[in-house]
UniProtKB/TrEMBL annotation, chains A, B:
Keyword annotations: ATP-binding, Ligase, Nucleotide-binding, One-carbon metabolism
Annotated catalysed reactions: (6S)-5,6,7,8-tetrahydrofolate + formate + ATP = (6R)-10-formyltetrahydrofolate + ADP + phosphate
Protein encoded by which gene: fhs
Protein name: Formate--tetrahydrofolate ligase
One GO molecular-function entry: formate-tetrahydrofolate ligase activity
CDD domains: FTHFS (cd00477)
Organism: Gaopeijia maritima
Amino acid sequence: MPSDIEIAQSATLQPIQAIAESIGLGAADIVPFGHHKAKVPLDVARSRGGAPGALVLVTGVNPTAAGEGKSTVSVGLADAFKLRERNPVLCLREPSLGPIFGIKGGAAGGGWSQVVPMEEINLHFTGDFHAISSAHALLAAMLDNHLYRPNSLDIDPTAITWPRAVDMNDRALRSIVVGLGGRTGGVPRQDGFVITAASEIMAIFCLADGLEDLEARLGRIIVGYSRDGEPITAAQLDAVGAMTVLLKDAINPNLVQTLGGTPAFVHGGPFANIAHGCNSLAATRAGLALGDVVVTEAGFGADLGAEKFFDIKCRFGGLEPAAAVVVATVRALKMNGGVAKDALGSEDVAAVRAGAVNLQAHVENVRRFGVPPVVAINRFTSDTPAEIEAVTAACREIGATAVVADPWGGGGEGCLDLADAVQSVIDSGEADYRPLYPTEGSLVSKLETVAREIYGADGVDVAPAAATEIERLERIGLRDVPVCIAKTQYSFSDDPTLLGRPSGFRITVREVTPSAGAGFVVAKTGAVMTMPGLAARPAAVGMEVVDGAVRGLF
Amino acid sequence: MPSDIEIAQSATLQPIQAIAESIGLGAADIVPFGHHKAKVPLDVARSRGGAPGALVLVTGVNPTAAGEGKSTVSVGLADAFKLRERNPVLCLREPSLGPIFGIKGGAAGGGWSQVVPMEEINLHFTGDFHAISSAHALLAAMLDNHLYRPNSLDIDPTAITWPRAVDMNDRALRSIVVGLGGRTGGVPRQDGFVITAASEIMAIFCLADGLEDLEARLGRIIVGYSRDGEPITAAQLDAVGAMTVLLKDAINPNLVQTLGGTPAFVHGGPFANIAHGCNSLAATRAGLALGDVVVTEAGFGADLGAEKFFDIKCRFGGLEPAAAVVVATVRALKMNGGVAKDALGSEDVAAVRAGAVNLQAHVENVRRFGVPPVVAINRFTSDTPAEIEAVTAACREIGATAVVADPWGGGGEGCLDLADAVQSVIDSGEADYRPLYPTEGSLVSKLETVAREIYGADGVDVAPAAATEIERLERIGLRDVPVCIAKTQYSFSDDPTLLGRPSGFRITVREVTPSAGAGFVVAKTGAVMTMPGLAARPAAVGMEVVDGAVRGLF
């Protein structure tokens, strides 16, 4: 089997104009970036299309270290819908540069299910992350410039909450002191960088309903507090017009293609812990306007990704998903059943059965949002028939359809059964989406609802500092908003070692922070890494350009 | 008179394919970025063209606070050559984001002599600065990652010379401490950010002769020293392949157009103090291959910009300039003649005459490189006929042709006389370019040569710390390289208040730093600002997006 980049680079791509044409867009409707990428202006996408397409979310079980292949299943599923002539559009997140050089390599699917041009998507793409980094940097510079000047807003230098951001894994920037060097060097204070995917601007970018809404949301960003404890916003720093100037082109969705020639919007890439972890609402809306079936993905497992997709993105965007695909792998269920990573190669049906409780819980959770699930068993070559039957049986127990899919080895052809199963669910019309909780209500009540109903916890404990912050946030107008819980992706609980379907545990909220521009409050249940580090041997070490082509990017 | 952005936005632009076609490039030869920008791959430009075009440098007198309009003259001159059907190509630097939000607004010419689309060129353009910022950040992260790991290269954390870089005016990042936050936060050490235009990668990017040379130059970057004083390079950190991956598309020149429809390569933007201050060699070469006359510009006055253009860029690139335009304004000569800024509105022929010694010195300096000069008097509405005659007379005294040009108000039409005068010089064939000094020789001898012959100084004093560093650099292989002097742009001397044509002064070299990848040694004659700050009311405050268009960017 060739590597992902070998497959991607050997593919013959269609001109992006042909991809655009397949969804009714002419050459003048798109803004080309090279021959295989384009931006579709928001107003073009909005002005097209009749009835919106059917929205299909791809989510998964609690992931393991290897990843369960949600992106790969998403691409394969979209390509299968294309083979079935269902006029699909795929919507995915954009990769972040930092992790590509750090440890993980590319993030555009894998094997015969990839979005292409793979290396361009993984590198600078159309510059959206750079635009977000610039807007973030401008706000940071204007904040410190205000402090350095007479500080007419009376900002407390010890109460600044706006970090700096860069799209790189750089642990040395996590905790820093800025403003040194004497009288002309600014005001000394503690600071730190987050990676761009963790910038609140990324979350805003992915939820904004057009440029005006973008500007309004940017204006509501809380950058810190005055000495008398009042929030200071980006609007008060007069930074918002210029930030919008920096983002005005980036906000337009990026159109590329899959290896199967399916149109794909790859746009926006917020973290799935301190943010909501889905591609931009603008891209999903464009897909729904231009396609008949839209396949999209949420980050991490369904406890985090699907919950936020439903409770944040669908709520804010007025989206009505028609179906959800829950991706499971035999490997992941075995690990959830107690098998160590290095023993995954041997058949262990009992472990699969034991771990399948994790899958069952996610399937039941998806149903709580009124969205009918289909389980996709993402096949690995080491899976045995008995192991796959164990997964299927576990799904039967709870009345769920499970279908084996092979997007990695088979592309769209490998996902035809899955597409047919999803199509049945769409056609059934049984979807009746509803968020888990109303926005009205105390923050703690909403945290309790998610913890009990989705995680299976006995309740929520709030650390004293977090309780104080909750009081403040509710006082300053951030009570009737959704909550965004940052939690380990490996467990339903906040303890990454509690696999399967744990019970008898409580969730501890340690820190609460506002994302007032995005429109939610983030509750952190542990130390959340918003600036990753590089590995001992970073992935960057193996990369090079040979005869103009990228090598070593996987 | 409408503002620059109003003029630019009201222009009807040709599709970039039509501009490309005018210099013999087909649609498949270029990589479009939207409808009015494209990249021209290096190998496409190299494979075209017969005899190289004539290279014309636009330089100027010592600038004043208002700027003397070198970019505007460059655009107008190129458009005048177009009116004369001379198949011109314009080559300019790319603007940096930081100053645009800081104080200065756009940097793409002015009035009726601009490169367009003005706001796109001034904002993210084709992402070159972002690519350079990313490559810079990757090297910084890999350096700190190496320190954090066993540090097998035995890098001295107190002897790291590789800063961090961001394309923003942010004084709070000038001097910082990184690596705080305990055991997982890296190694604490002093650090600081420069603006991306000051990154050595920018200088390398602008001198690299293709991707292989780029990679070799990146590898030679000195990031710091080991505990036993040996230089540590980027190659030793295994960062170079991945940095080249990040830069492989950026290195291709960007093609846009002037308001007069002249093809313009706008590519690369190094500082003119700690670097050489011209657009990329790749772009200039592409222009020479595709056009019959290439108009290009060097930063600051001719003492800094032209000297580096000749001694660094032309030397490294094997370029043979045919003519040089020395831009002067009546205002600048008056200031050089002792008039205060707020008195410039009144006629003062005596002051013009007194200040014209500055212009005479620059004209004579250009001749030292074997390049014939033409003086362009860039007309302002407040100039009087007697003042202009005083400039012309000063030029006559030294046998130089002076021509009044009005690129701002008249575009190419306003520069026809200038184009004709330059054409005469080109046709005369009198150009016989030679660098001022051979690369072989001690660093101090080269500093002396530039200081005496170009600045008119009596000699160079080297501060003790700089002398020690010169010894080290010569020992580690940086003796037989050009010198790049960072000096105030306002005076021939290192004292910004000594205007006109000062004499009886010495130049003091306070600090010397290697740019081993770029291939020169930087000598700083005073505190050089490599990270600007924002103004009290940053230009960003007035910017906004209205109906999708940028407002407030000048």
